Inverse folding.
């Protein structure tokens, strides 16, 4: 299925790429653990739980660092072949540059599939488990996060949140109030906006459950403190949910799977809310694995160019510089394209396409 050339070049790329990825992830894990030590001793948060938390976040770190690691690994692996004149021997034996590029892209395709599987299956789950573990140890309150919503317990109230926006605006809020294990009240709000330590709820439906009847009230807008005071008579009632708790429980768009992002987009559209930012995150998730191929292509001009005259240190410097430039320009082009009126899919695809064209032109000029 694969020729000797494919296997040989693939082994050179995979070996150095995995070594670089392991090094980067290990360093990130050590620094993250040191940072977590500041919270050790709060509640039941121990050093052991902190270590478990960091271990669960490592798949997410590996996903974010995968493309830069492949870039560095390709520069080091293929650069070593160029330094030893092996690439020169291959070309002298009649192997064209296009054939070498094809072998590299076969390896890149395998890496792309691997990182896509990591981002869609392992990472979202481990990120949720990690945040749950950390929060339960620090806050000591019941909370759980499914693929579609967030559940939090506060006293006799159980709060369900369908979507947490990046600005901590809550969408689809449901509050069930119990009294001696009996449901006495349910509150539904389409939206909740943070107002200091309080929350402003919009499009409210309040249902009170009596012994033989149910009464329903509707309000356009009200604060949570006002609603709590009206129905419990306690002006010092507990907050709906603390912003810090929401922030710690909510998972960033980068940590969500494409399926979860798509569900959020559908929810926002159904409620006639702006979904462009979430759509952008969705298409970036789709295009992100392709960054691995782009990184491999970006490394090839340097391999075919002057790599024989440079050592591993020079290749490492070039790789780090390329990775930084790619990340910065990628974010800049994405936001500029979205603000300029481009569709989310175009905004997400534009940066990798630009760098792919640069890589192809570079390969043609150096080959």
């Amino acid at each position: 299925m694969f020729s000797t050339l494919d296997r040989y070049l693939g082994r050179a790329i995979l070996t150095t790429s995995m070594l670089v990825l392991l090094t980067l992830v290990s360093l990130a894990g050590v620094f993250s653990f040191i940072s977590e030590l500041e919270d050790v001793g709060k509640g039941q948060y121990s050093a052991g739980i902190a270590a478990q938390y960091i271990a669960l976040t490592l798949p997410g770190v590996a996903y974010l660092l995968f493309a830069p690691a492949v870039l560095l690994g390709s520069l080091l692996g293929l650069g070593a072949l160029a330094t030893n004149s092996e690439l020169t021997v291959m070309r002298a034996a009649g192997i064209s540059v296009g054939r070498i590029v094809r072998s590299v892209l076969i390896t890149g395709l395998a890496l792309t599939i691997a990182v896509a599987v990591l981002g869609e299956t392992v990472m979202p789950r481990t990120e949720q488990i990690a945040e749950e573990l950390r929060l339960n140890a620090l806050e000591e309150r019941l909370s759980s996060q499914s693929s579609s919503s967030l559940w939090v317990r506060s006293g006799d109230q159980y709060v369900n949140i369908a979507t947490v926006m990046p600005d901590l605006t809550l969408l689809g809020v449901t509050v069930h109030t119990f009294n001696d294990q009996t449901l006495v009240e349910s509150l539904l709000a389409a939206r909740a906006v943070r107002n200091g330590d309080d929350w402003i709820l919009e499009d409210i439906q309040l249902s009170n459950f009596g012994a033989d009847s149910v009464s329903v009230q509707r309000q356009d807008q009200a604060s949570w403190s006002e609603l709590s005071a009206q129905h419990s008579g306690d002006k010092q009632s507990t907050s709906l949910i603390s912003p810090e708790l929401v922030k710690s429980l909510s998972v960033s768009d980068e940590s969500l799977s494409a399926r979860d992002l798509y569900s959020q987009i559908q929810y926002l559209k159904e409620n006639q809310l702006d979904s462009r930012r979430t759509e952008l995150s969705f298409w970036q998730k789709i295009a992100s694995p392709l960054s691995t191929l782009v990184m491999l292509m970006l490394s090839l001009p340097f391999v075919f160019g002057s790599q024989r005259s440079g050592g591993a240190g020079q290749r490492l410097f070039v790789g780090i510089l390329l990775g930084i430039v790619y990340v910065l320009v990628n974010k800049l082009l994405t936001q500029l394209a979205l603000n300029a009126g481009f569709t989310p899919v175009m905004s997400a695809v534009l940066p990798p396409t630009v760098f792919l064209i640069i890589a192809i032109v570079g390969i043609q000029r150096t080959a």
Remarks:
- The domain at 148-250 is CATH 2.60.450 (lipopolysaccharide transport protein A fold).
- The first helix runs from residue 4 to 36.
- The chain has two domains: 4-139+257-366, 148-250.
- The mean pLDDT is 81.
